[in-house]
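Subject line: Sequence and fold of a protein, written as structure tokens
Enclosed: The protein record, placed directly beneath this head.
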Amino acid sequence: MITQSITRNAVILGLFAIATAATLALTNQGTIDRIRCNKQAALENSLHEVMPAGRFDNDLLADVISVNDALLGRGEHHVYRARLQKQPAGAVIEATAPDGYGGALRLLVGVDAQGTITGVRLVPPHNETPGLGDKVELKKSPWVLSFDGKSLGQPNDTGWAVKKDGGDFDSFTGATITPRAVVAQVFRALQYYQQHRDSLFSTKANDTVSDINADACTD
């Protein structure tokens, strides 16, 4: 009887463990899907901030390529291509400034077909000092809007620097390293776009097949 009782309890415990593991696995998968959906939604919102509606009619997240170029920083970066009536209308370029005060700064730089900036945004997270370097965030300061309408010719090359270095861009009171890094990287992103503008739009888009559970994004 004792042996049978032990065996029965062991079976029950085993079944309970299996059921618990299965529940945790399903919950974890659902959480992963939700996190991915949230990240995708945040990215889409950021893309639309730097490439305003009306300038394109395609899906920026689907019309994307991966590139490696020193002008954009180390590693792989994405270029989201904007098209209007199937014609090139601009791009949103990922770029990384390696020399922020708190480390690397990830940026999204929107440019129109002619290479004029339509918007710049910092991609979180970052390690810039609160109240100083973090003013590169739009929610902390309008400073990042000073790039709108700028291009390689406006200002000229020497103007693409903070005023402390003889350029046209303001820095933050008590913080020069962060704005200096961002201005320099935005300038390099514009150089990249100018050099690769034609080939960017002729390259085949990345495979956009997603393993995200569609229901997780519609709840």
Residues 2-50 form the longest helix (49 residues). Residues 209-215 have pLDDT under 50 and may be disordered.
